[in-house]
Write the C-alpha cells for this entry.
Amino acid sequence: MSVQPIPPAILDAVSRADPSWQPILRQGLDAVMRAEPLYLPTLAADNYLPTEQRLFAAFALPLDQVRYVLVGEGPYPRAESATGVCFMDGAVGKLWCESGLSKPVNKATSLRNFMKMLLVADGQLQAGDTGGAALAPVAAAAASNGSIQTLAELQHKLTQQGFLLLNASLVFRSHVAPVIDARAWLPFLQTVMAALAARQQAPTLVLWGKIAEQLQKLPETKSFPQLSSEHPYNLSFIQHAGMQALFGPMHLLRAAGL
C-alpha cells in the first residue's frame, strides 16, 4: 500500500530542522502515515502547539552531536510557552529574581523543579529545603557568582552537552489527551531512535514520566543506556538521586569556564 503524502505544512516544519535530521524526520512521518493515515492530515487542519512551525525545533542539534535523548511528556499548554523543545518555556527569560526563582520560572512547574534539582545537585540547596526562604540567598549570589541568568543560556548549556530535548508527544491540543497524541507519534520516535541506534555509540536515554517510559518498549532503544524518573512536575523529582547524579557534574547553572 502506498503511503499518502505528508501534509505540506508538516513538511515545511521539517525543512527547519538541521539537514542531518531531515531525511530521518520524513521517514518518521511516513511511518506515522502508514500507522494512522488520517492523523497528520487531521493535525495539520487543527489548532495545536507549538505554533510558528516549531514542531521539530528540537532537531536543530545535528545528529552526530547527540549524546543524550531527554524525553518529556508534551509541549507546555500555553502558546507563548510551547517552543517545540522539551520543558524549555518560551515565556521565560530571566531565571532569577530578588526573592528566588523568577515568576515565569515558578509558573513553569517542570522547569522550576528541574532548576531546584540542579541546585540540590550542585550543593546550593538542601533536598528537604527548597522553598522561598532557602532560594533567596541563592538568587542573590547568582547575580554575581557567574551563574547563568536566562533560560536561553540553560538551553545552550544543555545543547553543548549533547542533549536532544524531545517530547513523547510533539504536539499539545486542548481537546486531545496527551497520551493519545503520544501514541500517534510513537512510529515517528521509533524511526528517530533507530537512526540514533545505528551510530557507533548509542546515546543515553533519559525518560521523564510514564508517557515517556513507553519508549523503553521499543526494540530500537534496547542498546541505549537508560535513566528514568517521575515527570518534573512532581515535587519528588527534586530529590531524584539518579537525576542528580546525571546532571550534577554538568554544572548547568554555572557560566562556561567556572
User: Anything to note?
Assistant: The radius of gyration is 18 Å.
